[in-house]
Amino acid sequence: MSTQRKTVEIGAVIDSSNYFWVPFVISVMMILMMLADGFDLFMMGHVSNHLVVDWAISRAALGPINSAGLLGMAVGSVALGWLGDRIGRKRSYFTCLVFLCVGSVLCFLTATGAAHDIHQLVLWRFVTGLGMGGVTPLAATLISEWTSQRVRSVVVALVISSVPLGGSLAGLAIKLVPWQYMFLIGGLVPLALFAVFGYLFPESPKFMAQHPAQHPRLARSLNRLLGRQAFDGTEKFIVKEEGRHSSNWFATLWNGHYRRATFFIWVAFSFNSFVLYMYTNYLKVLLPADRVAADVAGDALSLFSVGAFFGSIGGALLIRLFGSRNVGSGIAFIGACCTALIGVVLLGTGLPQASNVLVLSFLVGAAINGMQAFMYAVSAHSYPTEIRGSAVGMAQTVSRVGAVASPSVASAYFAMQPVPAVNLFFWFVAICAFITALSFYLIPSHIPPNKDPRTGGLDLEAQAIRDGAAS
Prior knowledge:
By secondary structure, the protein is mainly α. It is built from 17 helices and 2 strands.
């Protein structure tokens, strides 16, 4: 006599679980890894002036180096996001860290060599970019799949905001070690973290649910999540998600259900990335040396990174209360206004007060970096599990159109004779930030406000079984 397998819907289990302790430990691990990723990402903004001086190159020559890293990120984000959907988030994440380590160590060897070979630095920065490109979308995907809906946007924002905070650590490190060793630190630290966390690092529960051979492993993971023996591995685990699927993941992005969301996510992501990497790689170079002291310019970049924490977490808490549409669009608009105000501050004939430059840089960092975190959260929210890694990775890849454009535009600006007033350049960047705000507002699949933080006292296992049977 056959016994029918009990059907369990994964989403109900995850959404009804407590944040402590399993999701909390995962968050801590991801934050530390994202700090290391942010160190690599913001590194070029801190070593650029040293490259110009020590290698006797022009500021325009920085463009290919920065573009190589961003192009690598474009390839890595979609390729490794797709890989994560196929072989699992954990294995794909490890692949990212291998690229990070190899690329950064080879950049270090090039930087310490006698040849001063820019072409080699461009190549190895591309390899580093492959790893950087995959880390963030995989992190957003994994965190969103391990945390309950009531805290998901806050936790994703916290993890993503660790990237610019890692950039602040790069700003501190450049004051303590020779600039060439920044590459060595950026390569060895993430691999060391994975060696420490490799055993604890989890696989996506929704990925395991889609592979019956991994159901016993999934049952053990869910039991740890719940703190009790709720499942024995004989259950039929399923994932219940809305939306219409097409023949393949890319076709699904552009079918009638997801088309509008995909278009506006890509536009908002691209323009925000353009503004973000313009600040990340060129803020210190753009601030006129005859009007803003070098130490003030360095502190401005560090404050731009620090602002990410406040913008991301503060914004995520507001999103939990009011939803992502108005909160994210409003924060993006503030970023556009503050960018325009930097141009106004630099317009005067006298020396601008350092406090004005620093405060505005902090506010812009809170807005622009916060928006980057919201883009990952909204992107992960907008797509189903089986294509989420590919979809978020593809969104990040398309966003690299804006990111790659930033060094090209900056190089073209510096190559002009005469170079136009820098305030005009900041006003141009402000217009791009405004386009981010508008396109983000038009995304149809926003995170709704969380008006029902608990499940109303339903038994967790009963609710999951009921949802599974209903589907």
